[in-house]
Amino acid sequence: MDNEPNNKNVYKLNGKVPLKTAIPLGLQHVSAMFASNLTPILIITGICGISAGSALQITILQNAMLLAGLITLIQVIGMGPVGGKLPIVMGTSSGFIGVCQGIAASMGGGLIGYGAIMGASLIGGLFEGVLGLFLKPLRKFFPPIVTGTVVLAIGLSLLGIGTAFFAGGLGAKDFGSLENLGLGFIVMVVIVIFRHSKSPFLRATSIIIGILVGYILAIIMGFILPKTFMVTAADGTTQEVTKAWVLQTSKIAAAGWFSIPKLMPVKMVFSAKAIFPMIIMFIVTTIETIGDVSGITQGGMDREATDEELSGSVMCDGLGSSIASVFGVLPNTSFSQNVGLVGMTHIVNRSVIAIGGIALVICGLFPKLAAIISIMPMSVLGGAAIMMFASITVSGIELLTKEKLTNRNITVLIVSLGLGYGLGSTPAAVAQLPSALQLIFSGSGIVPAALFAIVLNVVLPKDAE
Q: What is the distance of C-alpha 358 from the center of its chain?
């Protein structure tokens, strides 16, 4: 029965799950998104001249973990009409990096630039919240051919990111080294082995088992392999660099024991030239969230999302982003890699994701615990990420086949992926377009693919029976 704690309830949306099962499954989701939740903060604070390791940057990073956990709980549990009450993990969106970079440049950078980003996020989030409230009448524009195309584009866009993690992480001096690739490959092999275990618990926790094996292997490698190597710069000078797979345990020692979140660490600035592009980006992320929700329900529950689930999820995206801005954190949206994790494991129980949300809150309050997760080698995460991201692509294919692939639907898919995704994933191809169009067409390719799919679905006549 659902009212009694039962391991089988992990495959049900509601129902009690024993803590000894729920905790590792929840931590599995935290491991999958932890690095991606903090990376946008590191990039944008750097662009705005907030020095690395400064008290302000550390405060914003801590707030980012805390807010990701709190907004995840709102999404999972629901607060009135806000929240889809689905197994969705929320976090700092990397999709906003481009527009935030543009805002910072237009405002002259510095704390004013970061403040303008926060002010625009507050307004843009409220706009998306209102949009979510009226999403039901717009549902007709998102049949399976459209949502399937969006989910497929999300999966395809993430595969490149997963591969970059697998090779050691973009920017790593030893990117693509045998050590990085080997570590990621072993993690993947471990996940595959346990994914096909006869034990339901081992199958369900295959991701975190793979990551733990990766941690242990990285420790062993540190004892038997060189941890550094020499890099020659363009000017001929040489520098000793630490390899990407090495565990930076000094970060754990340097982290504090307890941290209280701080409201408005940066004063908000409200400027029309910041608010307008941010609103465009929030419209864009609405489409992506609809794709994520569809991927969750299709990949995890083999059904389409309801109007209430879509509306509540979009509202949580918007209002959660507004709340995050008050704490100096970039917009919080649904995390596609966790959608892939749900699609791969079929674990859809809300209490499991709630445990993950609580773990993020704890990490936001106790920095030493956060540091343990933050030192995860990118190649370890990559071994898991490739499988999770590929499972999103499979969910998109499943959605597309919900309806017969008629000549009309195939045309929608061909043009949306071929032209929309193709242009969007090749920024140089749209570099000469006006800046407003570049916001839409440059980046991951998700947004232009979605826009082409929506327009073609409306314009093309239905096939005759």
A: 18
What per-residue confidence (pLDDT) applies to 318?
93
267-301 pLDDT, tens digit each: 998 988 788 878 877 887 787 788 788 878 877 78
pLDDT digits (tens, 9 = 90+) for 301-337: 888 888 899 999 999 999 999 999 999 999 998 887 6
Q: Rounded CA gap, 107 and 103, in Å?
A: 6
- Token code pair at residue 381: 């995460």
CA 84/CA 353 separation, integer angstroms: 13
| Residues in CB range of 7: below 8 A, 6 or more apart | 17, 18, 21, 200, 201
Angle at CA 376, nearest 5°, toward 374 and 380? Answer: 150
Question: What's the CA dihedral at 258, 263, 266, 267 to 10 degrees?
Answer: -160
Closest of 3, 34, 5, 6 to residue 341, by C-alpha:
34
60, amino acid identity: I
> Residue-wise over 152-177: b if at least 16 C-beta within 10 A, else e?
bbbbbbbeebbebbbbbbeebebbeb
How is residue 65 written in tokens?
């973990």
Taking the C-alpha atoms of 340, 341, 344 and 349 in order, what is their torsion angle to the nearest 10 degrees? -120
- Residue 114 pLDDT level (bands cut at 50, 70, 90): very high
Angle between helical axes of 307-326 and 55-77 (0-180°, round to 10): 160
Write out pLDDT tens, residues 117-169: 999 999 999 999 998 888 877 777 778 888 788 778 877 877 777 788 888 87
Q: How far is CA 314 from CA 169, 175, 236, 441, in A?
A: 30, 37, 52, 22
- A 10 A CB-CB count for 373 gives 18
Q: For residue 134, which phi and psi values (nearest 5 degrees)? A: -110, 25
Q: E strands, 305-463, where?
A: 332-334
- Report how far apart, in Å, the C-alpha atoms of 16 and of each of 19, 163, 296, 297 are: 9, 36, 20, 20
Radius of gyration of the chain (CA): 22
Distance CA 97, CA 433 (A): 19
Helix H or strand E segment including 125: helix 110-133
Residue 97 or 373, more confident: 97
Spatial separation of the C-alpha atoms in residues 56 and 416, rounded to whole Å: 42
Distance in angstroms (rounded) separating the CA atoms of residues 304 and 14: 17
Residue 426, token pair as written in the block = 């090749």
pTM recorded for the entire structure: 0.71
- Separation between Cα atoms, residue 161 and residue 97, nearest integer Å: 15
